[in-house]
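#onboarding

Welcome to the new folks! Below is a worked example of what a typical request in this channel looks like: someone posts a single protein sequence, and someone else replies with the predicted structure as tokens. Don't worry about understanding the tokens yet, we'll cover that in week two.

Example request:
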Amino acid sequence: MVNEARKELVFRRGEVMSREGEPINSFMYLREGLVKLYKTNIHGKDQILSINIPGDFINLLSIFSTTEYKYSITALEETKVCEVNLDVIKKLVKSNSKFSLRLLNRISYISDEVIQNHFEINQKQVKGRVAYFLLFLADHIYKSHTYRMPVTRREVGELISMTTENTIRTLSEFRKDEIIGMDGKTISILDYERLVNIGRTG
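Example response:
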């Protein structure tokens, strides 16, 4: 039933996959790429809620609670998504208790992760927030100490609730102190232990 109702979609870097306020018609599983979930305030300023990686159900927090998206989703790089008609998923939830429990477990995990990430960030000062984000990309997204920054400096600030100016200044200080190297959008963590210490105590 699910195989017959699913389709593969490809989104280019920067392409909006769904907009806040649009109707939710499908269940989306991220197969390849990277996406950001964000809300836009009345002044047109975005607030990134999370960055999602392959294996994530990128609209799971909304599909059973509302008929419209409460956030927008944009591809940060070329992204492949498996999309399944939402009515099919809802029928499966009603008829398959094991599948329902797996979904509930995943919803709970995602909710806990979002809460914990925002709690961690809000407890830190400027340097600690930037260090936390750099380590998040290295340890959880790219699994490497060298990677291409998937978002702009402004978007980094949005995600960790800092101004663009503070974000840029902190990155420059990290580079000056030889904690990181920067070549365009490529970040290299040169002193991992020191960055971890800043992220923990900053």
